[in-house]
Specification:
The protein is mostly helical. The protein is built from five helices and two strands, in the order H-H-E-H-H-H-E. Helix 1 packs antiparallel against helix 2.
Length: about 140
C-alpha cells in the first residue's frame, strides 16, 4: 500500500513529466531507425520513471549471469552515443525535478529517486528494471 501511495505522489512530483520525456526520447529514437536499440531502453526506463517505487534498475549482466550485446563493448559505445544525444538532457530534467522536490521535507525521498533516475539517464544501455522483493519483518 505504501508503494502505491508513493507512486501516486511521485506522479505529481515530476514522475509524469519525466516518464513522458523518456517515452518522447524513445519515439524520437524509433523515428531514426538506427535508434531502435535505444528506444527499447527508453520505454523500459520510461515505465520505471512513471512507477519507480517497488522496482529498481540493475545491470542485465547481474540478472542473466552473462554478458550480452548491451553489457559489453557495444553497450559502452551505445551509452556514449546516448549520453551525447539524449542522456544529458534527461539527466538535467531529473536533476531539476530533484532540486524542486528537495525544497520540502516530504519531497526528499522523491528527489533522491530523481537523482537515481538521472544516473540511469546517463547510461541506460545494459540496464533492466526488476521488482524489489518484499521484506518480511518477523
Amino acid at each position: 500500500m505504501l508503494r502505491f501511495l508513493g507512486n501516486i505522489i511521485w506522479i505529481v512530483l515530476g514522475g509524469f513529466v519525466m516518464g513522458v520525456a523518456w517515452w518522447l526520447a524513445g519515439v524520437l529514437a524509433l523515428i531514426t531507425i538506427i535508434g531502435i536499440p535505444w528506444a527499447r531502453s527508453c520505454f523500459v526506463i520510461g515505465l520505471f520513471a512513471f512507477w519507480p517505487f517497488g522496482r529498481q534498475s540493475v545491470n542485465r549482466r547481474d540478472v542473466k549471469g552473462f554478458n550480452d550485446i548491451g553489457t559489453g563493448c557495444l553497450g559502452l559505445l551505445g551509452n556514449i552515443i546516448w549520453f551525447i544525444f539524449a542522456g544529458i538532457w534527461l539527466a538535467i530534467g531529473h536533476l531539476t525535478a530533484a532540486l524542486l522536490c528537495f525544497i520540502t521535507i516530504i519531497g526528499i525521498p522523491f528527489g533522491i529517486q530523481h537523482i537515481k533516475l538521472a544516473l540511469i539517464a546517463l547510461a541506460p544501455v545494459g540496464q533492466t528494471v526488476v521488482e524489489v522483493e518484499r521484506q518480511r519483518w518477523d
